[in-house]
Amino acid sequence: MTTQTAQDPRPMLARALDQAERQVAAVRPDELGHPAPCADYDVRALLGHVLSVLYKLARAGTGGDARGVPDVTEGVADDGWAGAFASARGEVERVRADDGLLDRMVQLPWAALPGRDALEAYTAEFTAHSWDLAHATGRLAGLDPGLAAQALEAFSEFAPPEERSEQGRFSPVVAVPEGADVYTRLAAYLGRRP
């Protein structure tokens, strides 16, 4: 049985995965070619990337090297994305149930981190990609603002604006009107044009 404390990132990861799973399940085959707001992806490629992120998290959490997982999983049937996500999420759920993961070092594509930090980073990534899918398919209603607030804080720490370029993982911050909602601010912080 796991003990969940204020320092345990797993409850927020579960919320982010729930949200991402709802977005993935809502995608219709006729939406797969829609452009996504992130780097040269359409919805199909974004779904493939989200699936790969699950595979990376599962591999890193079991002591493997996530750098060996491709950035985009291909070969999923048009109507198979929800099932593929659920299956990969099951692997992640088994890995995250291990309390030892929180303090064990894991190898991610960009760094070796304690498992706790890796789970927080992937929570932010799943939150951002949920917005990407919602924006690309017109399903922005119902996104969890608490997840976006946490993701914005996390990205502010590990992707500061001064380290951005058009060639990097994150584009420069985009200006948004004062009073913009938290998902709009998150997307703009990541260089998306909401």
From TrEMBL:
Residue stretches making up the Mycothiol-dependent maleylpyruvate isomerase metal-binding domain: 13-134
InterPro entries the record matches: CHP03086 (IPR017520), DinB/YfiT-like (IPR034660), Maleyloyr_isom (IPR017517), MDMPI_metal-binding (IPR024344)
Pfam families reported in the protein's UniProt record: MDMPI_N
Coiled coil start-end: none
Domain of life from the UniProt record: Bacteria
GO molecular function: metal ion binding
Entry protein name: Uncharacterized protein (TIGR03086 family)
Organism whose genome encodes this protein: Nocardiopsis composta
